[in-house]
């Protein structure tokens, strides 16, 4: 695919933000508001960017991230990307099932909502989720497929300038199939 990441990047200032010191409950309410504004056409984005005390973007928050926040230690059992290459998952599955026997995340929902901070469960972007604006769309496509990201943090000279959403890349793929391939 021809084209560069910068041509499909949504500028960082178009995204709603939340502080990493916000509570779990505040994160849920902010995500709901972002979704409502997106659905009503008031906002183009529903991805919620997370800023630290210095107002630096340190991650993003989605409904899935919030649900993961109910069991913040669960992902630390096994690296999800590494375990995807393990053909024999019975050891990993047994470890996770053992952990589930002692976990009751929904029973403690109200306590979690009031006391847990976004920074307690925020997963910061790894190297595979950060891409330079000058990279090709092909490189971004590979990262979406290999690492199953729903968006990539786009940088220029190591400064965050925006986000590349999978939905925009998919729209480009669909458009090319319709318009170029003659389907």
How would you sum up this structure, described in words?
Helices cover 42% and strands 16% of the residues. The protein has 183 residues and is an alpha/beta fold. It has a single domain, classed as Roll (CBS-domain). Strands 1-7-6-5 form a four-stranded mixed β-sheet. β3 and β4 form a beta hairpin.
Short recap of the structure:
The chain is of the alpha/beta class and 183 residues long.
What is this structure's SSE topology?
Elements: E1 10-11, E2 17-19, H1 24-40, E3 48-51, E4 57-61, H2 63-69, H3 80-83, H4 90-102, H5 109-115, H6 118-121, E5 130-132, H7 137-147, E6 151-156, E7 159-165, H8 166-179
Parallel strand pairs: 2-3, 5-6
Antiparallel strand pairs: 1-7, 3-4, 6-7
Q: The biggest beta sheet, please? A: 4 strands, mixed
Tell me the Rg in angstroms: 18 Å
Poorly predicted parts:
none
Helix fraction, binned, reads 40-55%
What is the succession of H and E elements? Answer: EEHEEHHHHHEHEEH
Relevant CATH superfamily = CBS-domain
| CATH architect. name | Roll
* Strand residue content: 15-25%
- Highest CATH level, the class: Alpha Beta
CA-based shape: globular
Number of domains: 1
How many E strands?
Answer: 7
Quaternary assembly: single chain
Average pLDDT reading: 83
